[in-house]
Amino acid sequence: MKLYGSSILTGYIFPAKGNTFHKRQWVQTNFRELWDKYNKSHATAYELRHHYAIENINRWTDEGFGFDAKLLYLSKSMGHSTLESTKYYYSLVPGMADILEEKTKTDFENIVPEVDYEESNE
């Protein structure tokens, strides 16, 4: 990937200079400008981010469970500094705790270990 005339390796969808993430205000401002230009309906960057997390978690209920790896990937892709931030979305999916326990015979806290991150987007 090329950015600002130099090669970078990044895990960010829209990396900023210095191979870091864009601040929340940059995302909101640019999202609003582009969304309003091409859409008549209302949406916010946060709503799309929320939808991304929830849809991924919902999809896992229909697939084989590699829940810990999937949640870790989701967490990193969203730029969360801890899994606690991502667990918030898990708590919003109705019935997910029951499905998770039924399929794995254990609870969420015992499945996913806490992992340190280098990035932070909160």
From TrEMBL:
* One of the protein's GO biological processes: DNA integration
Q: Which UniProt keywords apply?
A: DNA recombination
- What InterPro entries does the database record attribute to this sequence? DNA_brk_join_enz, Integrase-like_cat_sf
Q: Which residues form a coiled coil?
A: none
Q: Name one GO molecular function term.
A: DNA binding
In Swiss-Prot or TrEMBL terms, this protein is called Tyr recombinase domain-containing protein
UniProt source species: Candidatus Magnetoglobus multicellularis str. Araruama
